[in-house]
Structures are given as C-alpha cells and as structure tokens.
Amino acid sequence: MSSRTLRRWAASACFALATVAVVTVGFVQGQIAITLPLFVGLDGVSVLNATVAALSFTVTLLVSGAIFAVEVLRERDRGPYPTTGPEIAAVVPSYGDASALHRSVESLLDSDYADVRVYVVCEPGDDATLDRARSLAERGRVTCLVNDRDPGSKAAAVTYAVDRTDAPYLGVFDADERVHPTFLAAAAAGLDDHEVVQGRTFPRPDGLLESITYYESVVLGYLSHRLVSHLTDFDMVASNALAMRRETYDRVGGYDPRMLTEDFDFAFRCYEDRVSVRSSFAYPSEIEGAHTLRDWWGQRKRWMTGYAQVFHRRIGRFHPVASPRSATSLVFCAGAIFGNFVVLSLVPQLAVLAAVGASAVLAVTVGTLWGICLGVRLLDARLGVVDGVGLAWLLVPVALPFYSLAAIKGIVEYPLSWEGEWFRVEKEG
Fold first, then answer.
1. Span 408-429, pLDDT tens digits
2. With contact defined as beta carbons under 8 Å apart, do 326 and 320 qualify?
3. Do 309 and 256 meet the contact criterion of CB atoms below 8 Å apart?
4. What is the strand order of the sheet 116-122 is part of?
5. pTM for this entry
6. Exposed e or buried b per residue across 30-64, where buried means at least 16 C-beta atoms within 10 angstroms of its C-beta
7. Chain-centre distance for alpha carbon 374
8. CA–CA separation, 135 and 102 (whole Å)
9. What does each C-alpha distance from 246 to 196, 198, 285 come to in angstroms?
10. Can you tell me the distance from the alpha carbon of 365 to that of 344, in angstroms, rounded to the nearest whole number?
C-alpha cells in the first residue's frame, strides 16, 4: 500500500474522529448548567450552556446584519460617483472559462466608469479561452495576455498583468463575474481616501443549490466579518470585486502563487501592513455558484485547506515585536478556521434545547437566521441585483452544518494528505 493511500486513510479517519468529537463535546457541553449573574446582591439565574451558545449566535447575527444593512444603505446615498478619472486596469485571470469569460469582460466595459482597460490573462494551451478572449478584445479596451512566464495560478496571472500596465489603479475580477455597472465608479471614489476598495460577490441564485449557496455567502462570507471588521479594522481583501492603488499592491507584495487561497493570505498581509480598506457592498457582482454537490463540497474543502495553509504561514511569521499586528492576525486566522468547529457544535446544542423543551430559544435562533437571510435577499431584490425571493432560505439552518463538515475535512487534510492539488468548479457561463 502506497504512503499516499495511507495518508488519505489517515485523513479520513481523523476527519471522522474530529466530527464525532465536536458533536459529542457540543452535546455534553450543551447540557451543562451555568449561573449567570443578574444584579449585585441578587442570586444569578441558572441556564443551560446550550441556551447561552444559541443566544450568543443570535445576537452576533443580529448585530452583524444591522451593520451590513447600514453599510449598504449608507453607500447608496454617497453618490453621484465620478464617471472618469485615473485609469483602472481590470485584471481577469482565466483558465477553462471560454463559456463564462464574456460576463466579466462585457460588464467591465459597460461600467459607468469610462477609464477602464481590461486585461484578460489566459494560460498556455487553453486555446478555447484564448480564442474567446481575442474575440472580446475586438470591442476595444481589452488586452489579451498569455501567462507563459509562470503559469498555473491565479496569483501569477494577476502579477503577469500588473507587470504589463502602469495604470495607477488595479482591479481584480473573476472570469465569470458580472460586475455591477456602478462598482468601478464607487471604487474610484473610494480610492481617493482609501488604499483598497473591496466589493461583494454573490452566487447567482438560479437553482436550489445555487440559492442555498447565495445565502451561505451572506451568512458566512460577509455577515461573519462585519462585526470583526468594526471592532478590529480587519477587512477581508479578496481576489475578485476588488480595486486598489498600484503602490499598495507593490508595497504589500501582491498575491503569492504558492498559496492555495492567495486572497486570504493577501488579506492578512494587508492588515499587518495597515492598509486602509473600504467595503463596498451596495453594488455587488454576480458570480456563478456551484451547480452540483460535488462542486459545492470540493470548492469549500479547497477554501479551508487554503485557510489552513495560511494559518501555517502565519504561525511561522509570528513576530509581535517586529509586526505588532501579527498576534491579532494569527487570532483572526485561527478564528476563521476553528469557527467551523463552533458552528458544527451548535447543532447538538440546539438538539439539547429541543430535547428539554426550550422551544422559545430554539425558535428565536432559527427565526433570526431565517430573518437575516430573508432580509438580505429582500434588500438585494430592492437593489435590483436578484429577482424574487423563493423559499431556499428555509434550508439555510440545514446547509450551514454541511459547510462546516466540508471545512473540517479540508482543515484535517492539509497536514495529513494534501499534496498541492486544488479543486476547480465547472462553470457553465
């Protein structure tokens, strides 16, 4: 039996053990009664730990949701935005995206901001995407590049394009990303007093799985960061729906092609370098979500394997004296990883509440999750970026634990069986 097979078996066994351990600990912990103080001189009230966990989750959701809504509505009132100004070099790395590439290129060219040039970076041998990029370049303001210097990663593709433009502003977008017409104009205005403007992306909710993925991106992709951002100044800087100053990209060092999740690594380096980031969520970009359960699972497992890789790097570069933010950076990174264990542990704790008849607490927790998802969907419908509402939001409480399982699988595999491979979602265009 090969060592690779043994490592894969070991990873599967550890994943099973980790899952059982989290569920068991959550169930046991949920049944522990704790005493909460009320007022000085009065006896406290005894409640189950499951109640505290559920209500803490609920309050966090409510506060984060309120921050998100205020940010969106406030940004909608900031306009009008400039339609011309410093040139933005919009980089679109592309591999195997012949059917989807038109979404990003055409939406960028149709932006309210006129001074944008699109750089499509293709991979050697990807003739179908290269042909599509060349045909799109016929519209003008599109440059088609082939990354024959260091192919094989999104990070290297972005670097290749950046080296071939002297534009003062840079943008990075996915090939399947339909960019909101106002985003670049809002980003250009934001770059007057910030170094980076990070937009929002949402999976196109055109099917059941795709709609669940949309709500998942709301709860885990954006709401989970808002409270942390306001308390600590840490903002996620991704590699899509992004605009930044060129000197900032150069100073931080750009994306690292050795990292599986190059944007997660870049975000922490931006934080440690005290880069000023503005979030721009009022003009979101539509991307293509996973269409099959295999793609959904593989994509999330890849994300968390990459997060574990970044955590590994952060440990190696921990130096609170030379870099005062390296300690908090390490804490945030650990939270993004081990938060998945916390989310999974909520499932048995909610089961404890159901078993003891604490239906009110259970209803408040699930109802808040439903309300947040429905509220954001209605807000997006009001903004005109999605059609209708549907009923998929009802399945979110069931879907989130499966996200945690995929995340834990990726985290466990990183030290045991990951050999540098990565999973790619099929895009339909």
1. 999 999 999 888 777 667 776 6
2. yes
3. no
4. 142-146, 116-122, 88-93, 169-172, 242-245, 196-203, 277-287
5. 0.91
6. beeeeeeeeeeeeeeeeebbbbbbbeebbeebeeb
7. 20
8. 10
9. 10, 15, 22
10. 15
